[in-house]
């Protein structure tokens, strides 16, 4: 069998060309990736410029009478459009958290929490509440225009909450003054697309949040909680200890 002999000089030349070929291939791949990133950044910059031009156009044409309508349109078309819808939780980082203490960490009993006001409605009975008869308490959330009436029956060890929500909205800015960021992220994920985003159930014993939805049936330690939607348009929450 014939053998092909390669001199050292030829071997070095072949190795050199192989090395240069690999180097050029790697360089080409890097250039391709960089160009793709540059193109993507350019498109993002163009989108941002379009958004800002739209805002400028709205503001330039607005009058005092049209301000509220235009502000709402900007909010719906731009803020709550594709950017916020896809990256909602990312926007939380831009709002500073000023809460001294997290409302959720202050309670061990099962609670109904109002996310706009920080009001906590205890669902079970404490030892200090050993008495007879009924008691009635109220709460109101002006942001979502939600009224809450709670009737406690000490003989039956039950509490019934009637919830009447007019707007069904939650203010992240207010939450940033009441809850820690970890709880806010968890709450917003749990309450996504729920009819009562301004309210949530919290079990301090289990350290978990639960949505207030029709048909909800939860057990927190010795407290059974059921939620039903009434024909009157209100939600009724019943807690039995």
UniProtKB/TrEMBL annotation:
Keyword line: Membrane, Transmembrane, Transmembrane helix
Ranges that cross the membrane: 14-38
Name of the protein this chain belongs to: Uncharacterized protein
The organism of origin for this protein: Candidatus Limivivens merdigallinarum
């Amino acid at each position: 069998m014939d053998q092909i002999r390669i001199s050292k000089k030829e071997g070095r030349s072949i190795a050199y060309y192989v090395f240069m070929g690999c180097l050029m291939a790697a360089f080409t791949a890097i250039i391709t990736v960089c160009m793709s990133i540059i193109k993507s950044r350019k498109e993002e910059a163009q989108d941002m410029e379009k958004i800002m031009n739209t805002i400028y156009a709205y503001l330039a044409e607005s009058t005092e009478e049209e301000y509220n309508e235009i502000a709402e349109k900007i909010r719906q078309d731009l803020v709550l459009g594709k950017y916020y819808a896809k990256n909602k939780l990312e926007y939380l980082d831009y709002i500073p958290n000023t809460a001294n203490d997290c409302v959720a960490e202050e309670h061990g009993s099962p609670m109904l929490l109002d996310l706009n006001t920080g009001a906590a409605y205890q669902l079970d009975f404490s030892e200090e509440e050993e008495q007879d008869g009924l008691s009635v308490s109220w709460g109101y959330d002006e942001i979502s225009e939600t009224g809450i009436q709670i009737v406690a029956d000490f003989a039956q060890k039950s509490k019934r909450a009637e919830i009447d929500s007019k707007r069904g909205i939650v203010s992240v800015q207010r939450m940033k003054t009441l809850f820690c960021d970890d709880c806010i992220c968890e709450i917003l994920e749990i309450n996504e697309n729920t009819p009562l985003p301004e309210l949530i159930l919290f079990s301090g014993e289990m350290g978990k949040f639960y949505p207030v939805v029709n048909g909800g049936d939860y057990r927190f330690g010795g407290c059974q909680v059921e939620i039903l939607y009434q024909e009157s348009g209100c939600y009724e929450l019943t807690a039995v200890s």
